């Protein structure tokens, strides 16, 4: 069967695209895609050539600019290359040249159309650049060099980071949030920078997570990632949490593991009367297991029983009761022995964090006591994309991908691309 697609503009037939549709279902799907892609590409190019909106003559140096020439422009789109001409104007005084039509149409810098750029970055934020290149070719018939995608990510990355700083969650309830959870964590990634020993250095990506439940019980979660010091990330996390409803939240819960920088941020930016600090239950339990394995290395049954007892104490009596029990246990071992050191390390971890371990109270108030939402955010935002075999990054390159990925995970992908980030980056 022959398919004919007729493209008309203003009642005038511009072109007919024909194709033979036959064979198996998969073959017919491919044939139809090719026919309609050709028609779409041709229609786009004709519209840019024949239906250009009127632009005012620009001014410069307090004078109207002069028409100079028509300049060719071409862009690669998902349906092929499109070409058209537009008017260039020049200032007779300073000789500056502008193309008003490009600004009016939102024509980006570079060689990719907005739709192809969005499609390309949709692949890049999920998987490696090499895989993105292959999937563009396989699924859309577009062949691009890997460097083009890298350059595009570098171009729109800073715009994506700025967008994160400004966007207000579209799923934020209209009224005050009953309880806002805030947490942060870090994960190491391999950089391109070499140390004095010639080895690649590792950089920490700091990840923030805010989540809350609406009256229907639905979870809302938003993530943020930055490669920067804790002194810079702390105020950024606070500003970002404000956009997630921090100021109007009736109650705030800050959850974190034992990292000192995390609790320095909590003490500086999340320390008002509404806020409860919670030491992540699962990180504390990991420390219990480490101590039990050192105390009874050859008795797994005793390890399990002891950790179960300690966990029950934590759950029903809290960290201070466990602290007293461990203090008595410490006295049973001579100083300098491995067992004494194991208990001392556990006490050293627990001691500074006792105010964060009132688990009976947290449970009575139906609070989350684990940082699972934060941990999963770290995996989704950084680990799954940036820690593949052999991956190493420049800081701007990694930040670009993380910001794009965060925008996607937060459900703001279409909103971000509606801001024309390629044009904003020009």
Give the secondary structure arrangement, pairings included.
Elements: E1 2-9, E2 12-20, H1 25-50, E3 59-60, E4 63-64, E5 66-77, E6 80-90, E7 97-98, H2 100-105, H3 114-124, H4 129-140, H5 146-166, E8 179-194, E9 200-213, E10 219-226, H6 230-243, E11 251-256, H7 260-269, E12 275-279, H8 281-295, H9 300-317, H10 319-330, H11 338-350, H12 359-364, H13 372-386, H14 395-409, H15 413-418, H16 421-425
Parallel strand pairs: 8-11, 11-12
Antiparallel strand pairs: 1-2, 3-4, 5-6, 6-7, 8-9, 9-10
Helix pairs in contact: 3-4, 5-14, 6-7, 8-9, 8-11, 9-10, 10-11, 13-14
Kindly describe this structure.
It contains 16 helices and twelve strands. The chain is an alpha+beta fold. The chain folds into four domains: 49 residues; 54 residues, no CATH class; 69 residues, no CATH class; 205 residues. The protein is elongated. The strands form four sheets. The chain has a five-stranded mixed β-sheet with strand order 10-9-8-11-12, with helices on both faces. β9 and β10 form a beta hairpin. The model has no long low-confidence stretch (mean pLDDT 92). α6 crosses α7.
């Amino acid at each position: 069967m022959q398919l004919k697609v007729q493209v008309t503009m203003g009642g005038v037939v511009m072109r007919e695209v024909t194709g033979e549709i036959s064979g198996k279902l998969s073959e017919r799907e491919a044939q139809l895609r090719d026919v309609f892609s050709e028609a779409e590409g041709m229609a786009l190019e004709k519209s840019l050539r024949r239906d250009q909106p009127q632009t005012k003559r620009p001014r410069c140096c307090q004078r109207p600019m002069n028409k100079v020439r028509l300049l060719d422009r071409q862009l690669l789109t998902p349906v092929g290359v499109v070409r058209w001409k537009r008017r260039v104007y020049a200032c007779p005084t300073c000789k500056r040249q502008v193309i008003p039509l490009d600004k009016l149409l939102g024509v980006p810098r570079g060689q990719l159309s907005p739709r192809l750029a969005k499609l390309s970055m949709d692949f890049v934020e999920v998987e490696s650049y090499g895989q993105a290149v292959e999937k563009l070719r396989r699924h859309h018939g577009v062949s691009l060099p890997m460097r083009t995608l890298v350059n595009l990510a570098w171009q729109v990355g800073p715009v994506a980071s700025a967008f994160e700083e400004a966007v207000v969650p579209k799923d934020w309830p209209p009224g005050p949030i009953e309880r806002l959870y805030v947490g942060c964590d870090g994960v190491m990634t391999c950089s391109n920078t070499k140390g004095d020993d010639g080895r690649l250095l590792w950089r920490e990506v700091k990840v923030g997570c805010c989540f809350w439940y609406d009256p229907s019980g639905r979870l809302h979660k938003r993530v943020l990632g930055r490669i920067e010091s804790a002194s810079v990330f702390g105020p950024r996390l606070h500003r970002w949490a404000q956009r997630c409803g921090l100021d109007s939240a009736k109650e705030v819960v800050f959850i974190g593991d034992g990292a000192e920088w995390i609790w320095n941020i909590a003490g500086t930016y999340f320390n008002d009367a509404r806020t409860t600090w919670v030491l992540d239950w699962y990180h504390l339990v990991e420390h219990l297991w480490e101590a039990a394995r050192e105390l009874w290395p050859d008795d797994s049954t005793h390890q399990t029983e002891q950790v179960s007892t300690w966990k029950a104490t934590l759950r029903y009596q809290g960290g201070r009761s466990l602290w007293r029990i461990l203090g008595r246990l410490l006295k049973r071992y001579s100083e300098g022995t491995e067992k004494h050191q194991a208990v001392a390390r556990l006490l050293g971890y627990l001691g500074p964090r006792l105010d964060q371990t009132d688990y009976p109270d947290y449970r009575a108030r139906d609070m989350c006591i684990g940082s699972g939402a934060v941990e999963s955010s770290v995996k989704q935002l950084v680990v799954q994309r940036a820690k593949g075999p052999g991956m190493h990054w420049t800081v701007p390159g990694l930040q670009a991908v993380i910001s794009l990925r965060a925008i996607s995970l937060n459900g703001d992908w279409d909103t971000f691309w509606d801001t024309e980030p390629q044009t904003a980056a020009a």
